[in-house]
Amino acid sequence: MDASGTISPDDELRHWPTDEAQARAVQDRLRSSVRLDQSGPEPGFAGTVVGVDVAYDDERDVVAAAAVALDARTLAVVDEATAVGRVSFPYVPGLLAFREIPTVLDALAGLTRTPDLVVCDGYGLAHPRRFGLASHLGVLTGLPTIGVAKNPFTFRYTPPGPDRGAVSPLLDDRPGTTDTPGSGGTAGGAGHPEEVGRALRTQTGVKPVFVSVGHRVDLDRACAHTLHLAPKYRLPETTRAADSLCRRALASV
DNA sequence: GCGACAG
DNA sequence: ATCTTGTCGC
Fold first, then answer.
1. Tens digits of per-residue pLDDT, A138-191?
2. Which of A65, A93, A187, A210 could link A103 by a cystine bridge, Cβ 3.0 to 4.6 Å?
């Protein structure tokens, strides 16, 4: 991090961790760079929302990433890019970012214009150390990011109402994991469960998705964007487009 | 020791 | 994430 508080993605990539202990140390070091004090772009803003996703071929040790830019208002695809690389880290719950980010950064670099918002597959704040994939990608790029996951991980939630748009809090029952203002310090006392994200029903009668803040976006807007991006299916169109593209990219390698 | 475990 | 058949519906 330089004097202005910016993280250098190149420096981070040069010092990419090789084991779990190093990776956790990186998360603890970068966590303080996350900006949670900005509300982020308004839903329906004039700009692009970019979806990123990754596909793997562990047999050949190959990973393919895709970045697809949609018009934030019409959801039309306006730009896309892919990148291929070697798997840089094994899958470990809580350390997903180290497996996905290097190739995702390459894909993002292939876009013609700078994204106004990036939607990640996975979590941001909803993470054991409050620094999931979306937080990590946000800090390394400086871009507003959110995380939309398909599973609640270890967090607890009460199912939201049956209608599209219904939400319920995603809660961390284990206090003392992080020093969050209002969580009552580090003593493992019985404090109120911390809301780390939200379960959001994007389609009536369909299992919810799990939204959390990444970087420079608040939770209300993260949910509003997610709902706007999912007018027809459970998952945001950004995620669907990026998922489709990275699979095609992997298959053509 | 056993279960749970984003993608 | 990935492995996989058939099936229901627009």
1. 999 999 999 999 999 889 999 999 999 999 999 987 765 444 444 433 334 456
2. A65
The b-or-e profile of A91-109 (16+ CB within 10 A means b, else e) is eeebbbbbbbbbbbbbbbe
**A126 CA: nearest nucleotide by C1':** B6
Sheet of A209-215: strands edge to edge? A77-86, A62-71, A48-57, A117-121, A145-149, A209-215, A194-200, A167-172, A156-157
pLDDT of residue A194: 84
The per-residue pLDDT for range A63-119, each reduced to its tens digit, is 999 999 999 999 999 999 999 999 989 999 999 999 999 999 999 999 999 999 999
- Please give the nucleotide, over all strands, whose C1' is closest to the CA of residue A122: B6
Nucleotides of C under 7 A from a protein CB: 1-2
Give the nearest nucleotide to A212, CA to C1': B6
CA dihedral A112, A228, A124, A172 (to 10 degrees): 180
Residue count of chain A: 253
Domains with residue ranges and CATH for chain A: 38-177+190-251 (3.30.2170.10)
Query: Separation of CA A120 and C1' C4 in angstroms?
Result: 27
